Amino acid sequence: MLRSILSGTERSGVESKDCDEASLSSNREIPHCAQNENEWNDAVIKRIVGTLVGLAGVGAGVLAASFVVLGNRRIDEWETLTIDDAVEGDYVELDDGTRLHYITCGDPANEPIILIHGLMDSALHWHKNIAALAEHHRVFAIDLPGFGYSSRVNEPVYCLDYLARAVHDFMNEREIWRADIAGHSLGGAVALQMAHDYPERVDKLVLIAPGTYLTNQLEPLKYAARVPYAPRAIMGFAMTSEQARIRSWQHALGSPEHLDRNELSLRVRPQRVKGTADALIAMAASCWTNNLANELDRVTAPTLILWGDRDRTVPPWHGDRHINALPKAELIVLEGAGHIPQNEFPERVNELMLGFLTNQTQGLSTA
Question: I want to staple 254 with a disulfide (CB 3.0 to 4.6 A). Which of 21, 272, 303, 310 is the partner?
C-alpha cells in the first residue's frame, strides 16, 4: 500500500513535472506570438501614418494650387482697364518707349512745377493741391512708370535712378529745362535723386515724408518676389480686398476720422490697369540699393520738408535725418497729420508750399 501510494505520488510528480514543462513551454511561445503581433501593429501604424502624410501633402498641394489659381483669377478680373482709360491728362513717349501719363494745369507762362506721387499712387494723388499751385505755377502731375496710367514695365529695372531718369526724360520731351519739383514718400526720394543726378534741372524741392532712408531696406523683397507663382497670387488677394485697402488707407492717416471712401475709390481706379500686379512684382524684384542717403550733402537745391507728427509709414524722426544731411533745408512738422498731409490738410500744405516756392530761400539755412 505504501509502495502504491509512493508510486502514485511519484507518478503524480512526474505528471505534474510534465505538465509544468508543457506549461512553461507554452508560456515561452506567448512572447514570440506577442512580438509578431506588435511588429504587425507597428507596420500597420506606419502605413497609416505614411498614407496620412501623403494625403496631407496632396491636400496641401491642392490648396496651394487652388490659392495660385484663385489669386491669378482675381487679378485677371480686377485689371480691366488700360493706360488709355485715363479720365484726363495727356501722354509723352520717353526714349525707352515708355508712355508717361501726366496732368497739367496753369498758365504756360508761369514757372513749372513737377509733382511726383508715392508708392501705389498716381497723379490723382495731388488733386487737392493742383488748382492752388496752378494759380502761380504751370503744374505737371506725372504718373511714374508702373503707376497710374503710365506704361507697365514688367522687368526688374525699377530703382531711384531709373525713376529719376524718367522724370528727366519727361522734362526733355516737354521742353522743361528747369523746374521746381515736389515729391511725396517714394516720389520724395525720386525728387531728391533727380536733384542729385541732374542739379542743373532742379530749382527748388518740396519733400513730403520722403522715403529716402527706406529704399535700401527693400532689398530682401527681391528674393521673395522671385518665388514661383506665389507673389502674383498674393497680389491677387491683397489688391482686390476692400478691407485691406481701407486698413492701408487708415494706417496712412493721422486720424481714422479723415477716411474718405470717395477719395479711396478715386485713387484705386488706376490700380485696375492691366499689368499693375506684374509691375509691382517687378518692383519688388528690382535692386533698390544706392548711395543717395549717404550723398544728400550734394543736393544744393533749397528744400522744404513737410512731415506729419502722426506718420506711421515713415516716422517723423526721418525728417531730422534729412534736415541734418541736406545743406539748404527747412523742416516743418504738421500736428495731427499722418503720412499724407497734403490730403488730410490740403489748405495748410498748399499755403506752406506756395509760401516757400514764391519766396525761394526765405527761412532756409544756407551752406
Answer: 310
Give the predicted TM-score (pTM) of the model. Answer: 0.81
**Res 67: pLDDT:** 66
Taking the C-alpha atoms of residue 40 and residue 32, their distance in angstroms, rounded to an integer, is 12
Domain boundaries along the sequence of the chain:
83-359
User: Is pLDDT at 339 greater than 90 in this prediction?
Assistant: yes
Distance, CA of 216 to CA of 287 (rounded, Å): 9
Residue whose C-alpha cell is 548711395: 291
The one-character DSSP state at 298 is: G
Out of 3.40.50.300, 3.40.50.1820, 3.30.360.10, 3.40.309.10, select the CATH number for domain 83-359: 3.40.50.1820
Helices (H), the chain: 2-78, 130-134, 160-173, 186-197, 221-224, 230-239, 242-252, 261-268, 276-285, 317-325, 341-344, 346-359
Residue 232 has a pLDDT of: 85
146: cell is 508702373
What's the chain's length in residues?
367
The grid coordinates of residue 75 equal: 487679378
DSSP 8-class letter at 292: G
Q: How far apart are the C-alpha atoms of 245 and 259, rounded to whole Å?
A: 11
